[in-house]
Amino acid sequence: MDDVMGYMVGALAIVSIFVGLPWLIFHYVTKWKQAKTLTQGDEKLLDDLYDAARRLDDRLCTIERIMTAENPDWRQHCLPGQTTGQRMLAEKE
């Protein structure tokens, strides 16, 4: 009886080492690789944020044009050392 239990424990240990352990490692490696990529929701959120930033930049340019039309020297009064035409956002490629 003790011999049978010993063989069963040994067989279970061998199966867990050669089957269970590699399965566990590959399972988590796959999960880590999936977590490194952007999901569809993340990509949509980034696109929406970029569009919102672009719209805000366009609004700011409109306000700057209106202020420049009313007072051409407003930049020197509000932002000393600021050059005209300096943009915060780069153009989308």
The structure class reads: mainly alpha
SSE pattern: HHH
* Secondary structure: number of strands: 0
**Residue-averaged pLDDT, rounded?**
85
**What fraction of the residues are assigned to beta strands by DSSP?**
under 5%
Taking all Cα atoms into account, the compactness measure Rg is 32 Å
**Could you list the spans in which at least 5 consecutive residues all have pLDDT below 50?**
none
Largest sheet: none
Distance between the termini: 74 Å
How does the overall form come out from the CA principal axes? rod-shaped
**Oligomeric grouping of the chains:** single chain
How would you explain this protein's 3D organization?
The protein has 93 residues and is an all-alpha fold. The chain is 76% helix and 0% strand. It folds into two domains: 1-37; 39-93. The chain has three helices and no strands. The relative contact order is 0.05. The mean pLDDT is 85.
Brief sketch in words of this structure:
This protein is mostly helical and 93 residues long.
Question: What is the fold's blueprint, element by element?
Answer:
Elements: H1 2-36, H2 40-70, H3 74-78
Which key phrases capture this entry?
2 domains, 76% helix, 93 residues, mainly alpha
